[in-house]
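Please describe what follows:
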Amino acid sequence: MSIRKRLSPEESRTAALEAARALLIETGPQSVTLKAVAGRIGRTHANLLHHFGSASGLQKALAKDLASSICAKIADAVIASRSGIGTPRDVVDLTFDAFDKEGAGALASWMLLSGNEDALDPIVDAIHDLVVELNEFGSEHLRDSTLALTLMALGDALLGGPLSASLELPRTAARDRAEAMLLGSIDQAGTLAPEG
């Protein structure tokens, strides 16, 4: 007879999101189901249904969790870059890795294709909040750069490998282009920043 450790509702939810994130990275978004996550953490389908309401609720919670943690890392990288500790390439790599290696691109695409119309809300909201937090001068350049960088990272996660290969470009071509764009935007914004 196995005895399961009793978890608080928050601990159960956190364990479920960690398991869902691992499944996403290991086997893709189609594997992020209530049954698979429940099996991974030794809980019942009903237990997860109670916490998330449905598989799409679980996926939306996962998207929110991913977006929050990724945007926090990106914010730290932007702040480090501004203080001369990090580089714009760090920001590019974190953004591209979030959509590719951490599965955010595949998850967002899967949710949209599954008919979850508000699937991208947590990701869009987290990116909006990040821009508001970092946009000390109200710069349109930061909003434009964020839009372009996010779309480039999403596209690269979904099609970057085969497309760069077919165009006989290095696999890092999109990241290299995003870095050049970001550096150009930083230079342009620097010339437009209000004088203090």
